[in-house]
Amino acid sequence: xxxxxxxxxxxxxxxxxxxxxxxxxxxxxxxxxxxxxxxxxxxxxxxxxxxxxxxxxxxxxxxxxxxxxxxxxxxxxxxxxxxxxxxxxxxxxxxxxxxxxxxxxxxxxxxxxxxxxxxxxxxxxxxxxxxxxxxxxxxxxxxxxxxxxxxxxxxxxxxxxxxxxxxxxxxxxxxxxxxxxxxxxxxxxxxxxxxxxxxxxxxxxxxxxxxxxxxxxxxxxxxxxxxxxxxxxxxxxxxxxxxxxxxxxxxxxxxxxxxxxxxxxxxxxxxxxxxxxxxxxxxxxxxxxxxxxxxxxxxxxxxxxxxxxxxxxxxxxxxxxxxxxxxxxxxxxxxxxxxxxxxxxxxxxxxxxxxxxxxxxxxxxxxxxxxxxxxxxxxxxxxxxxxxxxxxxxxxxxxxxxxxxxxxxxxxxxxxxxxxxxxxxxxxxxxxxxxxxxxxxxxxxxxxxxxxxxxxxxxxxxxxxxxxxxxxxxxxxxxxxxxxxxxxxxxxxxxxxxxxxxxxxxxxxxxxxxxxxxxxxxxxxxxxxxxxxxxxxxxxxxxxxxxxxxxxxxxxxxxxxxxx
Length: 564
Description:
The chain has 16 helices and eleven strands. The protein has helices at residues 12-24, 27-58, 66-111, 123-165, 167-174, 176-214, 216-221, 225-277, 283-323, 354-357, 392-399, 443-448, 456-465, 491-505, 521-532, 546-550, and strands at 342-350, 369-376, 381-385, 407-413, 418-420, 429-432, 441-442, 481-482, 509-513, 538-542, 554-557.
């Protein structure tokens, strides 16, 4: 299976600006972590002094009480334990809140964006971004950056402490830092590309897994088990290949960097040993030397790790920004019309682009809907008929303001005025799509999507009108659980519950897309009588069922467009 790798088109400044805005929502946790880190630096450098002092007292290089010296060491160890516990608490409690908040913001942004009829990204890829990439960004903002501040403080504190003991050694040990800064730019560019490739492959693996699990019954009946496992192996193989490439580059880079750190430590050890042999440095002083070298090199190593972390978070930001590429729908308060109201189409045309339709270039001029005019008058019932591919579902999406007509206008009107249809007018419509649209949870939770404050009596009445009163005979009634995609219920039962949800929403215009296809004729007839009896709604059916057409006032036949 071949997947095209998308090349990023964002500038570094764009990504940093996005990170800055995200950081502003996580300042509390970042500040607390920074304070914990800075206090930890003070405790750590104090431990260097405490160890040196205890060793010098034990070797009689200085006067003092050995028990008090060891006691101070013990107190500093306890302080270090307390800081570690505080860090874990902040990371686990505030960290999950920060991650949840970012996921909510991104999901809200996606739900409010324009819809184009075909998702550009697989749902598995989107979930991968909302989980892994959000976690990466939040961890970088709330942990990596604050720890970098304490790392820098540790580096400077250890450097000046060592310089106060031997400035020449301090200079020699820190000479590696400019070299690190010189090579980091090249390293970042290559590592960013490799990390992007790994994240893309990881999303592809999750997409294959998700689709396979969701369509397990289909795969079993087609006896395609081996084919799907082979497809998974193919995507996993590509992921392994890219991980190996990134790992080789990372190992080679770390080998060079660690060689420099090791050389610096050996120089420091030799220097301290020479001074000690010349009696210009005490044993405690040598211990302090080596501890301070570690506390200089430790932050330098952390800074080295900061580069791949920075690369990784830039990749994550790119992937999250891509989720925000779709423009937002018109925002604002819903515009409610008087009931009953109608929908009028005047000279409406619509054609999907090549990517949305999957068409060859020579077919791009074919319009799905071509100069259609029709009036769904208030209080009437209309059946929309047409062969597969004629544009029936596209028409419904235009009425729902999910798609904008490329020519003509769509109006919603009542007895007093008419408005051009927009997302803000969607509050006047209710839609029952074809297929299984129940969500996991309980039947009650599914019904409350239609009306969040519905009472049990209202839900029972909606179930009765939709011929779904079988729900009340279930052992748990409204609180009966629904598995994913309504598992445990028949297709007919699922359709009736979905219609009950629409009735609870109670809007003046109701659209049904093959919503009774799984019902037997008697149940379908009774349901239609219940829905149409009040004559207070404008109802639109997409259907192939003759029984539905018989109940309608008007019929709109749509012809499949062909290239002239």
